[in-house]
Design goal:
By secondary structure, the chain is an alpha+beta fold. The protein has a domain of 66 residues. The protein contains 3 helices and 3 strands.
Length: 114
């Protein structure tokens, strides 16, 4: 059964300028992601209960998403590879769950290459 509210359209982009723009965007995101990974221990310890935006390979923390985005945008308006995380107030154990091993696994058999 098809749900008309959720349709996906896929297009192949071949324009060299569009591809270069997308690669540059991804490179900025990867740089910010690498910064967070390199500073994860400090970030996840020091900024509990805060919204943090990683932009320009740096951190901008605030109490609300709007404040954090505002700080980051003011400092690095050109960085379209920025992203936000909320750091939970308390550290909690998290267990990754795979849909293949979960309660609905029969529905997904054969879809993950396992």
């Amino acid at each position: 059964m098809v749900n008309p509210q959720f349709q996906m359209v896929m297009e192949e982009i071949t324009d060299p300028a569009a591809l270069a723009k997308a690669r540059a965007h991804r490179a900025r995101f990867d740089r910010n992601s690498a910064w967070l990974q390199a500073h994860a221990k400090e970030v996840y310890t020091r900024y509990r209960g805060k919204c943090v935006v990683i932009a320009g390979a740096g951190l901008f923390a605030a109490d609300t998403p709007e404040e954090a985005w505002g700080l980051a945008a003011a400092a690095h308006p050109e960085d379209d590879g920025s992203f936000m995380r909320y750091i939970p107030r308390e550290k909690v154990a998290r267990m990754p769950i795979s849909i293949v091993d979960g309660p609905h696994s029969e529905r997904y058999k054969g879809t993950t290459g396992r």
